[in-house]
């Protein structure tokens, strides 16, 4: 049985973790998973038994999961998951909350962990180089990588996620869905020549596929941020980052201390609603927000 790794990086983080009622974990692994139909009911049963809430995606290319529950139950789930040799070394990112971060438990079978529609991209067969959060911070501090090349950050997330927060001076192509990324990054290849490109996303999945695709089309110096923004927050904090990180659960966004923020998501149109926008009379909880409601006298933004 594999030991559960304590990801708390400081005494303060350990105090928060001890006081919180629930642990929220995010994890993924690209690996051949050829019996998803057979395994689905087993995942459903263990999560039901442990009272966990969240989403698990089982795909032929691997697993992606977001789960929330008490520490003891999360640890039991991870021990069970890691008893499958395919996921023995799966890495987990943690945050903490008083409530479970999801309201229900879903185990789904999908074609891909994250939809890109690029079947030749197989992370299991070889990843693009990854840069650790601490190394990236050093590069950003000094303005170049260890070979003296300027570092450019490329956000692979959807535009509404970027609007909640991102790295300073990042390149944001304003994509509406990840399937748009391959075309837009190919079109901008010349503009990124002679630079070291670091792709990033929330937890590492999208930027892992993105970096491999960029290598495949001829980018010669591209990295993925290991563990994504959440791992960067965990290891480094918020330096070189402005705002919060959008997450796909009821918390909506986490700050660099991995704490839920007051940013929310509109129940009607799913747009992100900032604290200032929540003062707008068009924001009605679970009814409307300034993005989807008819114009009224509104708070100036």
UniProtKB/TrEMBL annotation:
The keyword Ribonucleoprotein does not apply. It comes from the Bacteria. Keywords: Oxidoreductase, Transferase, tRNA processing. GO terms for molecular function: oxidoreductase activity, acting on paired donors, with incorporation or reduction of molecular oxygen; transferase activity. One of its GO terms (biological process) is tRNA modification. Residues 147-241 form the Rhodanese domain. Belongs to the TrhO family. This is tRNA uridine(34) hydroxylase. It comes from Massilia eurypsychrophila. The gene is trhO.
């Amino acid at each position: 049985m594999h030991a559960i790794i304590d990801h708390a990086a400081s005494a303060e983080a350990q105090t928060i973790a001890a006081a919180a009622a629930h642990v929220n974990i995010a994890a993924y692994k690209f690996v051949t998973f050829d019996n998803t139909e057979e395994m689905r009911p087993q995942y459903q049963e263990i999560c039901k038994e442990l009272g966990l809430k969240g989403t698990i995606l089982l795909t032929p290319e691997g697993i992606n999961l977001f789960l929330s529950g008490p520490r003891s139950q999360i640890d039991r789930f991870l021990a069970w998951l890691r008893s499958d040799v395919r996921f023995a070394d799966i890495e987990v990112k943690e945050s903490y909350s008083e409530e479970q971060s999801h309201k229900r438990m879903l185990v789904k079978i999908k074609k891909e962990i994250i939809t890109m529609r690029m079947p030749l991209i197989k992370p299991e067969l070889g990843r693009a180089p990854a840069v650790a959060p601490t190394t990236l911070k050093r590069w950003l501090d000094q303005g170049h990588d260890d070979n003296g090349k300027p570092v450019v950050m490329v956000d692979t997330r959807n535009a509404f996620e970027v609007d909640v927060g991102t790295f300073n001076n990042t390149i944001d192509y304003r994509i509406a869905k990840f399937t748009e990324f391959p075309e837009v990054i190919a079109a901008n290849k010349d503009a990124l020549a002679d630079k070291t490109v670091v792709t990033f996303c929330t937890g590492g999945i999208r930027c892992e596929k993105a970096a491999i695709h960029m290598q495949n089309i001829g980018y010669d110096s591209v990295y993925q941020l290991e563990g994504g923004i959440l791992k960067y927050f965990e290891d480094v904090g918020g330096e070189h980052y402005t705002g919060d990180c959008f997450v796909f659960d009821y918390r909506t966004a986490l700050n660099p201390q991995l704490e839920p923020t007051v940013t929310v998501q509109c129940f009607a149109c799913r747009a992100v609603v900032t604290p200032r926008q929540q003062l707008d009379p068009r924001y009605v909880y679970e009814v409307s927000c300034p993005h989807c409601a008819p114009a009224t006298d509104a708070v100036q933004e």
